[in-house]
């Protein structure tokens, strides 16, 4: 039984939820359906049934399926952006920063709700509003990494952004590959391997102002 089903079972029929709580409940149900079925195969009927509400209740909160999908994307794109920022701010040791950032991506894809599939494996990337959000999460994560690289190395913003995009792309692709391989390597070990690879590359750019620069 899912968390949503357990909540529904525990609550007497006819109980009215506060608007924010209802919205969160609907988003949770929608996430389950979209992750399992993909955008195109999912139906508002399925989402309403999963949430235990009528379709009119669902439409009171979200005018259509795309609105619901975009609300989920906004939520989960922001979650990754914030996770990367927290990782970068967690230490001033750059080697540990690299590791923490790699781990943030692994934690994101490993989340049991499967939200990363909506962001990185969407079947709706031809929709401009979806593409905009996916590009935003990629760019904002890269910008956060770029800030650290530019400050520490003295490289130009453009050069730092290229390196940051490479690190972010590496983390995202490898984390997804690791998950799809059924986590054949323990997460801790996988993160360490990737962090070592990334660090050996980025450490080749000396700190700004150091005697080796």
What does this structure look like?
With about 210 residues, this protein is mostly helical. The protein has helices at about 5-10, 20-35, 45-50, 55-60, 65-90, 95-110, 115-120, 130-155, 155-180, 185-200. It folds into 2 domains: about 15-65, Homeodomain-like (Arc Repressor Mutant, subunit A), CATH 1.10.10.60; about 70-200, Tetracycline Repressor, domain 2 (Orthogonal Bundle), CATH 1.10.357. The chain contains 10 helices and no strands. Helix 5 runs antiparallel to helix 6 (about 95-110), helix 5 packs parallel to helix 8 and helix 6 crosses helix 9 (about 155-180). The longest helix has 26 residues, at about 130-155.
Please write out the topology:
Layout: H1 3-10, H2 19-37, H3 44-51, H4 55-61, H5 65-89, H6 94-110, H7 116-120, H8 128-153, H9 157-180, H10 187-202
CATH superfamily of the largest domain: Tetracycline Repressor, domain 2
Write down the Rg: 20 Å
| Anisotropy-based shape | elongated
Structural class: mainly alpha
What is the CATH fold-level name of the largest domain?
A: Tetracycline Repressor, domain 2
Beta-strand residue fraction: under 5%
Number of E-type strands: 0
Biggest β-sheet, characterized?
none
Q: Helix-strand pattern, N to C?
A: HHHHHHHHHH
In the CATH scheme, the class of the largest domain would be Mainly Alpha
Count the DSSP helices.
10
> Distance N terminus to C terminus?
58 Å
Helix content: over 70%
The overall number of domains is 2
Return the CATH architecture of the largest domain. Answer: Orthogonal Bundle
Mean pLDDT: 90
**Uncertain parts:** 3-14
């Amino acid at each position: 039984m899912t968390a949503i089903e357990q909540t529904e079972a525990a609550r007497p029929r006819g109980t009215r939820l506060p608007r924010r709580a209802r919205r969160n409940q609907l988003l949770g149900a929608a996430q389950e359906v979209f992750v399992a079925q993909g955008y195109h195969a999912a139906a508002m009927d399925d989402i309403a049934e999963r949430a235990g509400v009528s379709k009119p209740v669902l439409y009171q909160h979200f005018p259509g399926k795309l609105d619901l999908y975009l609300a989920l994307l906004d939520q989960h794109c922001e979650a990754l952006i914030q996770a990367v920022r927290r990782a970068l701010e967690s230490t001033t040791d750059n080697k540990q920063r690299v590791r923490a950032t790699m781990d943030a991506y692994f934690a994101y894809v490993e989340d049991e709700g499967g939200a990363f599939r909506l962001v990185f494996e969407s079947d709706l990337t031809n929709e401009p509003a979806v593409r905009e959000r996916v590009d935003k999460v990629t760019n904002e994560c890269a910008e956060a990494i770029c800030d650290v690289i530019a400050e520490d190395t003295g490289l130009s913003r453009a050069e730092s952004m290229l390196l940051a995009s490479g690190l972010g792309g590496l983390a995202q692709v490898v984390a997804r590959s690791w998950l799809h391989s059924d986590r054949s390597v323990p997460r801790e070990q996988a993160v360490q391997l990737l962090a070592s690879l990334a660090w050996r590359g980025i450490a080749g750019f000396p700190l700004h102002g150091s005697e080796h620069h």
